[in-house]
Amino acid sequence: MKVEVLTPGASYEPSTQLSEWLDGTWPAMWSGFDVVLPEEHYAEVRNSWETPTISEPHGHVSDRVLARRSGSRIHAREWPTGVWTTHVDRYDPGAGAYQAAAHVATETALGKVMLGVLTSSAIAYAVGLWGKR
Predict the structure, then answer these.
(1) Which region holds residue 98: left if phi is over 0, alpha if psi is between -120 and 50, else beta?
(2) In this predicted model, what pLDDT tens digit does every residue of 38-70 receive, in sequence order?
(3) Paired sense of beta strands 73-78 and 62-67, if any
(4) 5-37: string of b/e by CB count within 10 Å (b at 16+)?
(5) What integer pLDDT is reported at residue 78 of this predicted model?
(6) What local confidence, expressed as pLDDT, does residue 106 receive?
(7) 63 CB burial (10 A radius; 0-12, 13-18, 19+)
(8) Which of 123, 4, 1, 120 is nearest to 69 (CA)?
(9) Among the listed residues 58, 35, 37, the one whose alpha carbon sits nearest the alpha carbon of residue 49
(10) 47-51, 69-73, 79-83: which is most confident
(11) Which residue has the higher pLDDT, 98 or 80?
(12) CA distances for 111 relative to 16, 75, 77, 105, 107, angstroms
């Protein structure tokens, strides 16, 4: 399965080797797994992918992102050990307001806490209304 990794008009195109690696690991990344990036791709990712404007801290020392045509993005993180891992953000917050809201709500700790609070509040409200019957 060919993974289209660039947005139209992008000036960077991944090397053949990196493209093949991304294609081969796509099912695991799309399923939510972090995949260790082979060392031969570190320099290309560090030098050619974009630095995100904001990133939730997970203990990594650096990260890069590569937008995809589908509205998702590939997120690479460098860890203190020097190892890079990649995963997919299903929503690229740089692709627009909807994607940014969906990314925060579904892919960040803050968003999950906010959804939990909203859900708990809605349940408490519904129970309160039911109790007044």
Answers:
(1) alpha
(2) 999 999 999 999 888 766 666 778 899 898 777
(3) antiparallel
(4) bebeeeeeebeeebeebbeebbeebeeeeebeb
(5) 94
(6) 65
(7) buried
(8) 4
(9) 37
(10) 79-83
(11) 80
(12) 36, 18, 20, 4, 7
Two structure tokens written together for 37:
């990036």
Tokens coding 7: 């947005």
Token digits of residue 32 = 């939510």
CA distance 113 to 102: 14
Strand partners, 50: 65
Mind giving me the DSSP string for 89-127?
ESS-GGG-HHHHHHHHHHHSHHHHHHHHHHHHHHHHHHH
Could you tell me which residues come within 8 angstroms of residue 109 by beta carbon, excluding any fewer than 6 positions away? 56
Backbone angles phi, psi at 124, to 5 degrees: -60, -40
Residues with Cβ within 8 Å of residue 4, at least 6 apart in sequence: 68, 69, 70
Pair of tokens at residue 69 = 């045509």
State how far the Cα of 62 lies from the Cα of 45, in Å rounded to an integer.
11
Regarding predicted confidence, which is higher, 113 or 63? 63
Identity of residue 97? A
